[in-house]
Give the backbone structure.
Amino acid sequence: MGARSIALPGPPVPDHRLDLESPAGPGRAHVFLSTGAPRASVVLGHGAGGGIEAADLQLLAATLPALGYRVVLIEQPWRVAGKRVAPRPPALDAAWLPMLAELTRGAGTGPVVVGGRSAGARVACRTAYATGASAVLCLSFPLHPPGQPERSRAPELRTPVAHGIPVRVIQGARDPFGTPGEVQAELPDPGWVRAVPGTHSFAAHPQDVAAAAAEFLSHLI
């Protein structure tokens, strides 16, 4: 059965923002508190070509708190500094690790689901074991550059699975960075991938992404 549609609300307003130190300079967390004690914290990073203003990230921040999830959108230091080009993956990972450690220190966060869109999903997969994440939620995982399937990033996608960490992927049906079928072929269970209308950005149908994310999370946590 397909995920139930979620209506589009207005842009969410964070309950608070936190500056986070990293080797690459300060990053920033936008925190959206859950209704009641959190079932889990869902910590999401952005892509290499944009920030947390992506429609799918904003809609998850607007809808998941009412379902009992604390949502944190993390801006990488390069975005906070106003740069237009993301650094190489090792630098992204090195910045992500201490920021996530700061956000999940202490009680009250619940289990932590890490993830993000595109490059943010790659970071989450590569670092999931090191961060102690309970699960990974990938939005538009860029399995390969458009038209270059031989340059596969499937080993990154499978890294959490090798450590026993569940991975779930929401992928646009016409994503040039990897179709849902291509992504399913790289994971042990095709049910771990949900196809939604659209391409890599999801811009026209973010509500389908939010519905699929809510369904995945309800079974993961």
